Task: structure prediction
Amino acid sequence: MSKTAEQTPTEEMEHPVSPYLRMDRIPHIWCPTCGIGTVVRCYADALEHTGVDLDKLVIVSGIGCTGRVAGYMKLDAFHTTHGRAIPFATGLKLGRSELLVTVFSGDGDLVGIGGNHFIHAARRNIDMLVILVNNFIYGMTGGQNAPTTPTTARTSTMPFGNFERPFNLPHLAESCGATYVARWTSLHVRRLTKSFREAIDRKGFRFVEVISPCATLYARLNKLGTGFNLMRFYHDNAVIDHNADTRDLDINFQDKIICGKFVDKERPTYSEMMHEHYRKTLGDKFVPTPEEGGMIRDTEEKPVSKGKKPAKSRKSKASVSKSGKK
Amino acid sequence: MWLNAVKYWRKPLDFDELTIPHGVVHIIVDRCKGCGFCVEYCPKDVLEMSEEFNAKGYHPPKVVKEGECVNCNLCEMICPEFAIFSTNASDNGSGTQSK
Result:
């Protein structure tokens, strides 16, 4: 950064998104014309405009191109094992109910490897925002067939074209019980930002699918040009229909993509149901997790002083080992 | 009804008070990967791909219509590399850094 700042006067100014990113890791590894960077910019803009407390915000990612978002955003971020972003986020939400938990991952990670977790998190209506960047393919591992690859599209494991039926993700999410379901492409930057803003304010399992171009694998294997051509394709073929039935939202190969906000309803979340149920059955014996966060025992003074000691010993051990190595 | 409304459409009451915003485009040249999204989707066609190369060997965009930018921020939102942004021309300089 400091080197570029010296070269030209316009580069002295910081990009407006830089407070939300770990700028020492930028430029990122995503390919030219990949759409994930756009989605990250829209998410950062939504955070800026909703005024969320960034100390109470957690972002959880799985593995994959989109899984790297957790590493690039300057938030409390967790980069988990493949497909297990949602179970990790579930535990986080149950343990620290005051946090706003966002799961930011790809299609292969969330509905391929971790498909079962996705279904059950939506069924239980766990209070989390799931942003799924759908590029129709396993990008990072070399273009394998994903559960979202449209029929007849070529992938590296289906060189003669895919013959499987892909997932219709908004329908899957709605039928499992999600409270907010939307789909946009990475071209719809304003609507996507608005959708993120709405979803941040809602409760329950919120699901936003973002169709994003994959230039290096999906477009190349299917001879569709680059991500630039895919963006033009979205421009010509994306249809906005907020009242569409989610059963009709299948994406066929190079066919129209129906976008919009399909579901926006209220349902009691997992924590609310749990608290209500235990209050009924256990009565006074039930001690709920405090809303302001943390476990009740942590607020007492004694464990804090205990917690400091091992930290010191850890430091001293580390210094010893370092000096020993030298 | 609707056609009449188009035919005899009136000027907004605060028409004289409205001003078109002016923006200044800032391009972080060495971060660009030359995807061309900003050039394609700029509503005022302010940008164009340049002939020159940046440090990575891509062609970054350049501003060809200075002063036509309306500070809509579309290039900033659509750029996947966080390499372009626009600021309001009137408060150009250090004041925009904190945003």
User: Anything to note?
Assistant: Chain B is about 15% helix and 15% strand.
